[in-house]
Amino acid sequence: MGDRPMQLNYSRAFGGKDLKMYGLSVHPDVKTIQLKKSHRVVVLASDGLWDVVSQERACRVALEEHAQGRHAAEALVNLGLSQLQAVGSVDNVTVVCVFFN
């Protein structure tokens, strides 16, 4: 807002024509991996989380919250929002945690 253009926000969702020349696409990057017994959680999150929380910390928090019977995704959203606030950002945070037995 203000001096930060908001054009990219809508463009990522709709594939804005004026940014396609820079490689912007509505088609997601997809990667397939073979799950192993050591895989315990997948954290799917928006850049609002990943901009301020490392992958390792996110997984650690998710596993700890889950082990305590609490909502891991909610804890990560709250962590991300508090970290964003600390750096003065107003980004949003969306998180989904998938746990494996």
Could you walk me through the main structural features you see in this protein, from its secondary elements to its overall organization?
The protein is mainly alpha-helical and 101 residues long. It folds into two domains: 1-30, no CATH class; 32-99, no CATH class. The protein is 41% helix and 10% strand. It is built from four helices and two strands; from the N terminus they run αβαααβ. The protein has helices spanning 7-14, 47-50, 55-67, 72-87; strands at residues 41-45, 95-99. Strands 1-2 form a two-stranded antiparallel sheet. It is flat and about 45 Å long. The model has no long low-confidence stretch (mean pLDDT 85).
Keywords:
flat, two-stranded antiparallel sheet, 101 residues, 2 domains, mainly alpha, 4 helices
Summarize this entry quickly:
The chain is mainly alpha-helical and 101 residues long.
Q: How is the topology of this model organized?
A:
Layout: H1 7-14, E1 41-45, H2 47-50, H3 55-67, H4 72-87, E2 95-99
Antiparallel strand pairs: 1-2
Helix pairs in contact: 3-4
- The amount of beta strand, in percent, is 5-15%
By DSSP, the count of extended strands is 2
Structure class? mainly alpha
Order of helices and strands: HEHHHE
Computed CA radius of gyration, to the nearest angstrom:
16 Å
Number of domains: 2
Q: Name the strands of the widest sheet in spatial order.
A: 1-2
Arithmetic mean pLDDT: 85
How far is it from the N-terminal to the C-terminal residue, by CA?
Answer: 43 Å
* Low-confidence blocks of residues: none
Percent of residues in helices comes to: 40-55%
Number of helices: 4
Could you describe the largest sheet, including whether it forms a barrel? 2 strands, antiparallel
Report the principal-axis shape.
Answer: flat
